[in-house]
Design a protein that fits this description.
Jelly Rolls, about 450 residues, ten-stranded antiparallel beta sheet, 2 domains, 2 helices, mainly beta
């Protein structure tokens, strides 16, 4: 028997954001007034999935109570090591690869082979150390085939998924989430799921977060509204599978992969309540803020989500979105200015044209500007920004994002040797000329 009610609900809570919520696929399956009754309805087992330490402060304490057909100890048998050669974890520092530089890649093309969520994951960069739960990895996924009687969870990390092409379904133990380009999904550490192809081929980006969970940034003087709002994060309603068939469970743990064989589907949670769950977010609901008179705010105003580090105000990871918006400030250089900073910036283009790089940064492509490496507009963008009419202008048909981290990002062998690296990217600044002549500019 398969019961998949589908659908999404707006949470009263998104991890780090608010209060608990609850959902059940069968009436009366969710206990009221207690988390662990002596006997659960329908002969279910009560089990807690903890996303934080038991004693984490209340506003950060995350857990979900699951009422399931079998306890999860029945979903992981004797494990054996396997190899997923293109999925890498930090630290991965190849002495023959130079990660110091400005890099840009064209989109990674689909291969003439069947690739699942697991076999189609290709790591581009790693940062930090998975074993100390710091840093991240950035991946490209190429998926043409759904997982059949195969399931996965990561004990190492949560995954932020950013589709660029095609539509995927994440059938998770807490319910079903479908995502398409211009949406994102967050899959928590320890969550079991299967990935299906709804419309393929599928390509996109993944930020694998080894550290503290993503949460909404503090908005300070901005106040209660704009940027990303709590109400727009959706969680799945309860859905379960009661299906007995030989299945494969794959686990990522300590940067290595393991498999075991079980005799049933592990997606058997009939009801649940709590604040530790997968979420979906529509990037079209992100409301940018910016200057309305002069000057150019820092790009941190475009932060959708942040994963804190041990240094206040300096993130383990920031997820930043550059989408359509009005440009209205006067006497202001409007594209991102030339700069270098302590964060390592990996960008991806979902669609359209990025304003600081009119040419070369293609949809599906990526760029990397590592910590303290200077970067900024090319000659064309500089000239346009310096001499264009300063009238209200809408930046349209554009959606790019950034995974930035306080740690240096190291290229993988795939990124350095197989992905379509643009060898001439650094030349985009060659035509910038000396303009200083010792006299004020009359303009």
């Amino acid at each position: 028997m398969i019961v998949a009610t589908g659908g999404l609900v707006t949470p009263g809570y998104m991890p780090g954001f608010g209060n608990d919520f609850e959902t059940e696929a069968l009436p009366g399956a969710l206990p009221q007034g207690m988390n662990s009754p002596q006997r659960c309805a329908y002969g279910l087992y009560g089990e807690q999935l903890s996303g934080t330490a038991f004693t984490a402060p209340g506003h950060r304490n995350e857990r979900t109570w699951c009422y399931r057909i079998r306890p999860s100890v029945k979903h992981v048998g004797r494990c054996s090591r396997i190899d997923l050669p293109n999925w890498k974890s930090a630290p991965l520092i190849d002495p023959d690869i130079v990660s110091l530089g400005q890099y840009r890649w064209d989109l990674v093309a689909h291969k003439d082979e069947n690739l699942t969520w697991l076999t189609g994951m290709h790591t581009m960069t790693t940062a930090g150390d998975v074993s100390t739960q710091t840093g991240m990895a950035a991946h490209i996924y190429l998926v043409t085939k759904g997982m059949e009687d195969e399931y996965f969870f990561s004990a190492d990390s949560e995954l932020l998924v950013v589709p660029q092409e095609g539509r995927l379904r994440f059938a998770t133990e807490l319910g079903v989430i479908d995502i398409a380009p211009q949406e994102i999904a967050i899959l928590p550490r320890g969550l079991v799921y299967r990935v299906e192809v709804l419309e393929g081929p599928c390509r996109g980006f993944v930020c694998e977060n080894y550290g503290q969970k993503f949460e909404l940034p503090q908005r300070g003087p901005i106040g209660a509204n704009c940027m990303a709002n709590r109400r727009d994060f959706k969680v799945p309603v309860a859905a379960f599978e009661d299906r007995e068939t030989e299945s494969r469970m794959v686990i990522k743990w300590g940067g290595t992969f393991h498999e075991s064989t079980i005799g049933h589907s592990p997606l058997d949670v009939v009801a649940w309540h709590g604040n530790y769950a997968p979420v979906k977010y529509d990037l079209a609901t992100y409301c940018p803020v910016g200057a309305v008179l002069f000057d150019h705010p820092d790009p941190s105003i475009f932060t959708v989500l942040t994963a804190p580090s041990g240094v206040e105000g300096t993130a383990n990871i920031d997820f930043v979105l550059f989408r359509e918006r009005w440009m209205v400030a006067e006497n202001t250089f409007r594209p991102p200015w030339y700069h270098k900073n302590v964060m390592s910036e990996l960008m991806g283009n979902i669609y359209g044209q990025y304003d600081a790089k009119p040419q070369g940064f293609v949809p599906g492509g990526m760029s990397l500007h590592n910590m303290m490496l200077p970067h900024g507009p090319d000659e064309e963008a500089f000239e346009k920004a310096s001499h264009g009419e300063l009238e209200p202008h809408k930046l349209d048909n554009t959606m790019s994002f950034m995974f930035e981290t306080r740690f240096p990002q190291h290229l993988t062998p795939f990124a350095a040797n197989e992905a379509p690296l643009q060898d001439d990217y650094v030349d985009c600044w060659t035509s910038l000329k000396k303009r200083f002549d010792g006299t004020p500019d009359p303009a």
